[in-house]
Amino acid sequence: MPTLIEFRDIHENIRLCKELNLDFIELNMNLPICLPESMPANEIMRLKKLYGIDFTIHLPEEIDLSSFHLPIRRGHIERCKETIEWAHAAEIKTLNMHLNNGIYFTLPQQRVWINEQYEAKYLELLLDSFAELYDLSNKLSVKLCIENACNFNVSFIKRALNMLSSTFDNFYLTWDVGHDAKVNYAEQPLILSHAKQVRHMHLHDFNGKSDHQPLFTGVVPLENRLKFASEHDLSIVVEVKTSFALKESIYKLREILS
Questions:
Q1: Residue 85 CA to chain centroid, in angstroms?
Q2: Architecture of the domain defined by 10-257
Q3: What band does 257 get if pLDDT is binned at 50, 70 and 90?
């Protein structure tokens, strides 16, 4: 389950996790209760042993490893490295992250992405940043998984992902099936071309307007996605946004699978 914004501390999330008999909670670093400063590794280890649950981590969405501003880029790299070290100390194996698109200019007839206009520099910076992160994550046995965020169909993002895949042996992906549906499954070809590198899944539905909907209320072929997850031994976050939607989703999922 994800960390839910309606709960003000991790213990409320843990109670629901136990009530639903789920295996782990994704600590969302966009929330101040899910930071290394708020949850030291020894406290996470205590909670894991006390409640018999595990954790994954979602890095903050503003992380930009290709920023053209050196101090900003270095700050984001250092935060990622701190998080990898935090995860290792807490025996957390999976970190989820987005690949930041950057900024675009809106012209009269088109949208121009700065990272595409200056793509050679963008790719150079991204490669240098990930070289540091993959080196550390490899040493500490932590999987860094890049999630499709409705952008794996963007041309310069596809080229960046293919570059990372061909350069690093520990390149891994998260398949967010709701995001993929939101862009009419345009991300799926790239994901399936790297099927052996998918390690994690975010599972939610899309109703034609909004994603992060309860399972089996929209158009996502969830049974197909669950089959893929089973065949590739993926961990899965049921990434809906409220406790009510999570309960509805888990009950329906177990009914379908029983």
A1: 18
A2: Alpha-Beta Barrel (3.20)
A3: confident
